[in-house]
Amino acid sequence: MNDSNSSLEQKFLPLKPNWFHVLLSLANEEQHGYAIMQEVLERTDGKVRLWPATLYGTLERLLDASLIAEANRRPSADEDDARRRYYRLTPLGRRVLAAECVRLEDLVRVIRAKRRAAESEA
């Protein structure tokens, strides 16, 4: 990754929590809004709920930022609803998600090191 790409990704960090959850939901597959909402709810054991207004506002901002795009492929007609819009990560979105994951992993490492240090002093 060259420096210009790296600085482009860094301008999005830290990601807003809603952005992070939507991008993470799209990491492995294209999904429509309701499926994203359900995945976030399940993945967080109900701790994070993306209400429709929040979700669709987030999707619009992610589209505007070129982190996601509408997917071209759709399920077969018998498994689909024509009103649904499907979303996918763009290459930039995938890089931003990866950079945010590294940032969060680094933060967890610091937290664990501080916890170990505090426990050894006690």
Automatic annotation (TrEMBL):
Species whose genome carries this gene: Occallatibacter riparius
Gene3D superfamilies attached to this UniProt entry: Winged helix-like DNA-binding domain superfamily/Winged helix DNA-binding domain
PANTHER family assigned to the protein according to its UniProt record, in alphabetical order: PADR-FAMILY TRANSCRIPTIONAL REGULATOR
Record's protein name: PadR family transcriptional regulator
Pfam families (UniProt xref): PadR
Domain Transcription regulator PadR N-terminal: 22-98
